């Protein structure tokens, strides 16, 4: 449905009226051990089950059969030679419950292989293998990329020991294929055992994909949250420290998948350094306990002489990591699905115990409580599991955030809130469920839904301030550490104006919204075997981070957003999100040095719209820059290996005209120097 407005909308920008600065942490990201987000989306390891959780050959390949993201089927190791030549040795294993042992023969090579590897011609690959066996045994590491004798490269390894020893190797294929095979075979007499094996591109950066690090660093995201998400509620952090080859693979009961434990604390800290962000670590408040959380804080932040500092030093990092942000649990309100979930009356006691224990080893940390306001409790229907009404009673047994504010206020610095909108459905409060969208609804209604969630949480917080006076003297800002508009076409532009509108709504309430971690960082880019590019969502995040200011200024207008047509609750605020410039949304901010005024304008309709801009209490210099995303189609894509259909276009401008035409479903940022 087209949304013509018929006349110019007026926007008035008063530079003298400012709000608290926009935090760089609003541009943050979230990563979780779920599916391939970390283990292959960020991490460079090419082999599945490299520490042999499954039997070899795998009779049943461990796969995700759990809810939603229960996930990735591991590529199996298969036997080369007689099936009986490889057994899983549970008595002399290297890591985990067992290791493959090859019975050798002097007349043939025997061993194991894994297929399905994507390789690039001329690109270097590095690996290591942990072996034990007789010194006279000969082991071959072979990368096979075709049927011919020349379609392979073999590295010979000898001088084995009876005790396990690591051997490094390098490979360089001469063809690009998606189904290469890595073989580990041996010939001789006796037995050879394989403890662990790894294969990565040689250009990996501390184990991470170089091309991914390159694009994520461009975002300057401020903060990353790790390791979960639901994953953290059954995670033991001690499983993921020390020598990665010695970390036993574990079955993750949350997502019904095997975790290699290759990306743990040290790797996450390396990653944060590579992309230049602050770390935010969540501790396990599901199956976990306060003592373990305390030990984790000491492991990360304790001096080298402390017990956990000594363990960190033994693992190769003497100096403290100095992690500032710590979350206590994840979606602790998820009574029907969260590991270790309990009633609110019990969890507030647990939260306080965690907070006191964690701060006892580092009083300087900032604690993020696992909250859920009424919109979340209603939309998830967890309100009915913890209370007796769909909409939680204020400060009742299902008002999770209210309970934390009431009983834990002194033990938190921010409150974690989550929301997800879905591209093809929306929440209907009257029906208490997700319902299909009206195919004829105005495009701006579709685009507004995530921003409405942000507006709704602002309204709910205002209600808490009335019910809990202590919030006036000790405000607790929102950390929106999971949020997304799910269901849009991958790497397309369609959801991007909606995300920009979400930023605008956070900017309008910069005192309340001080951190946000988008779900997930891997949704910022598109990648193939050897390259990665920012997709349209990533481009938008970068555009705002690079070109929008930090000190919000007042924007008023003559065209209020339409009034809601449904009662507040669920996903609907009492007042629709947006500035008084309908059908456009406008925000403005000064740079920190107050030398430049920036103005961001979103047109979420499918027709061009006219805007009259008026400025107060600032004289512009008469020249500036326009940054704009305005593809010809909402379904325009930007992905690795294809010609881009979406770009951020930079245009120098002279004096800012009072009347501007804003293209359909476009995002524009103006940088306008101020005359001194």
Characterization of this structure:
- The structure is a single chain.
- With about 675 residues, the chain is of the alpha/beta class.
- A nine-stranded mixed β-sheet has the order 31-30-33-28-27-26-1-29-32, covered by helices on one side. Strands 2-13-16-17-18-19-22-23 form an eight-stranded parallel barrel, surrounded by four helices.
- Strand 8 (about 140-145) and strand 9 (about 150-155) form a beta hairpin.
- Helix 9 (about 445-465) packs parallel to helix 11 (about 495-510).
- The longest helix is centred in the C-terminal third of the chain and has 25 residues, at about 445-465.
What would you say about this model in short?
This protein is α/β, with parallel strands linked by helices. 20% of the residues lie in helices and 30% in strands.
Output the radius of gyration: 27 Å
Please give the oligomerization state of what you see. Answer: single chain
Number of helices: 12
Distance linking N and C termini:
46 Å
Q: Ranges with pLDDT <50 over ≥5 residues?
A: 59-71
Strand order of the largest sheet: 31-30-33-28-27-26-1-29-32
- Shape descriptor reads globular
Please state the structural category.
alpha/beta
Fraction of residues in H or I helices: 10-25%
* Total DSSP E strands: 33
């Amino acid at each position: 449905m087209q949304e013509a407005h018929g006349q110019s909308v007026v926007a008035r920008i008063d530079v003298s009226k400012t709000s608290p600065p926009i935090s760089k942490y609003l541009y943050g990201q979230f990563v979780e051990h779920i599916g391939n987000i970390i283990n292959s989306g960020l991490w460079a390891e090419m082999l599945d089950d490299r520490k042999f959780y499954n039997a070899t050959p795998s009779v049943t390949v461990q796969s995700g059969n759990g809810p939603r993201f229960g996930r990735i089927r591991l590529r199996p190791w298969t036997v080369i030679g007689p099936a009986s030549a490889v057994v899983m040795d549970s008595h002399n294993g290297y890591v985990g419950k067992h290791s493959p042992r090859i019975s050798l023969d002097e007349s043939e090579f025997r061993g194991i292989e894994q297929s399905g590897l994507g390789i690039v011609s001329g690109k270097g690959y590095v690996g290591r293998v942990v072996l034990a066996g007789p010194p006279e045994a000969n082991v071959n590491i072979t990368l096979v990329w075709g049927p011919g004798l020349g379609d392979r490269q073999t590295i010979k390894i000898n001088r084995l020991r009876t005790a396990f020893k690591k051997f490094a190797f390098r490979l360089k294929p001469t063809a690009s294929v998606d189904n290469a095979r890595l073989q580990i075979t041996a010939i001789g007499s006796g037995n050879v055992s394989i403890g662990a094996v790894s294969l990565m591109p040689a250009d990996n950066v501390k184990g991470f994909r170089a091309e991914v690090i390159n694009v994520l660093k461009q975002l300057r995201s401020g903060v990353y949250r790790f390791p979960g998400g639901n994953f953290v509620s059954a995670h033991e952090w001690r499983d993921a420290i020390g020598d990665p080859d010695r970390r036993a693979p574990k079955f993750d009961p949350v997502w019904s998948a095997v975790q290699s434990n290759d990306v743990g604390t040290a790797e996450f800290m390396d990653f944060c350094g590579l992309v230049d962000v602050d770390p935010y670590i969540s501790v396990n408040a599901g199956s976990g306990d306060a003592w373990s959380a305390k030990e984790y804080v000491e492991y990360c932040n304790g001096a080298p002489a402390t017990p956990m500092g000594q363990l960190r030093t033994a693992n190769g990092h003497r100096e403290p990591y100095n992690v500032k942000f710590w979350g206590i649990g994840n979606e602790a309100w998820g009574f029907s699905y969260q590991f270790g979930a309990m009633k609110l009356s019990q969890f507030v006691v647990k939260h306080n115990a965690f907070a006191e224990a964690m701060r006892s080893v580092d009083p300087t940390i900032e604690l993020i409580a696992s909250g859920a306001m009424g919109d979340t409790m209603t939309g998830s229907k967890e309100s009915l599991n913890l209370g007796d009404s769909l909409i939680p009673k204020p400060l009742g047994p299902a008002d999770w955030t209210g309970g934390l504010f009431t009983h834990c206020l002194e033990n938190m610095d921010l409150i974690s809130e989550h929301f997800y909108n879905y591209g093809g459905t929306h929440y209907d409060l009257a029906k208490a469920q997700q319902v299909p969208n009206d195919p004829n609804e105005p495009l701006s209604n579709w685009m507004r839904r995530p921003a409405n969630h942000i507006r709704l949480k602002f309204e709910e917080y205002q209600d808490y301030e009335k019910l809990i006076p202590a919030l006036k003297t000790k405000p607790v800002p929102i950390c929106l550490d999971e949020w997304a508009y799910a269901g849009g076409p991958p790497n397309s532009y369609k959801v991007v104006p909606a995300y920009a509108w979400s930023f605008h709504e956070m900017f309008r309430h910069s005192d309340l919204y001080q951190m946000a971690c988008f779900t997930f960082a891997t949704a910022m880019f598109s990648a193939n075997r050897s390259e990665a590019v920012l997709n349209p969502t990533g481009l938008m995040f970068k555009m705002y981070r690079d070109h929008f200011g930090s000190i919000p200024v007042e924007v008023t207008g003559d065209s209020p957003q339409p009034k809601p047509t449904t009662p507040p609750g669920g996903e609907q605020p009492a007042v629709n999100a947006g500035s008084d410039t309908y059908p456009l949304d406008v925000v403005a901010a000064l740079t920190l040095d107050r030398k430049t005024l920036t103005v961001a304008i979103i047109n979420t309709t499918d027709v061009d719209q006219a805007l009259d801009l008026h400025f107060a209490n600032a004289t512009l210099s008469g020249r500036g820059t326009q940054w704009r995303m305005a593809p010809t189609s909402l379904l325009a894509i930007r992905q690795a290996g294809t010609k881009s259909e979406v770009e951020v276009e930079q245009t120098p401008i002279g004096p800012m005209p009072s009347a501007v035409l804003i293209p359909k479903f476009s995002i524009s940022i103006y940088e306008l120097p101020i005359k001194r």
